[in-house]
Write a structure and sequence with these properties.
The complex is a heterodimer of chains A (114) and B (111).
Chain A (H helix, E strand, L loop, with lengths): L4 E3 L2 E4 L5 E6 L6 E7 L6 E7 L2 E5 L7 E4 L6 E5 L8 E8 L8 E2 L3 E5 L1
Parallel strand pairs in A: 2-11
Antiparallel strand pairs in A: 1-3, 3-8, 4-5, 4-9, 5-6, 7-8, 9-10, 9-11
Chain B lengths: L2 E3 L3 E5 L4 E8 L5 E7 L6 E6 L3 E5 L2 E6 L4 E6 L8 E8 L7 E3 L3 E6 L1
Parallel strand pairs in B: 2-11
Antiparallel strand pairs in B: 1-3, 3-8, 4-5, 4-9, 6-7, 7-8, 9-10, 9-11
Classes of the chains: A mainly beta (114), B mainly beta (111).
Chain lengths: 114, 111
Amino acid sequence: DTGVSQDPRHKITKRGQNVTFRCDPISEHNRLYWYRQTLGQGPEFLTYFQNEAQLEKSRLLSDRFSAERPKGSFSTLEIQRTEQGDSAMYLCASSLPAYPYEQYFGPGTRLTVT
Amino acid sequence: GQSLEQPSEVTAVEGAIVQINCTYQTSGFYGLSWYQQHDGGAPTFLSYNALDGLEETGRFSSFLSRSDSYGYLLLQELQMKDSASYFCAVDGSGNTGKLIFGQGTTLQVKP
């Protein structure tokens, strides 16, 4: 396994458009996380899956954001009606539910909303 | 609210020792992690402390005091490649492993 992969790596879109990102976690990891990171800040939690179940979603997350993990493997994050404030790096991470709870991060998708 | 505080920048010379502190205030606490992130790269895991005390992994050590809501990352024998951002992160939920990250400390190692 080569680690967590994300696609696309970069996305430029116009305000109001919808975008979808994909994350492929490490195959045996049943936990999957989405984070958002802006310049000079730490990653901010967006949502979490255990297998195919979405168990937690940040209260800061607008209803324009939705995520799925239909078969407990890859996940998608969709942002509807994008706004300039959505411009950020979107990071996906996966882990096992075991000590030391290391999260393996993908390279991220950089979104720019013009 | 939930907050983590760490210095924004630290500068040190090659071969030196540097300590990056982290204080946290969160509604729950199960453990403190440290991640390293190079410019343009993804965060990578360095350490995890669930119990009080020092954990050592090669040149890096991490310390936790739960009673003081405080931890630190100690980097020894600094190398140029250690120049990066370092984030402390609290696992406040236990069940999910969801991490709350600090704003990060940018470490610059000079020759």
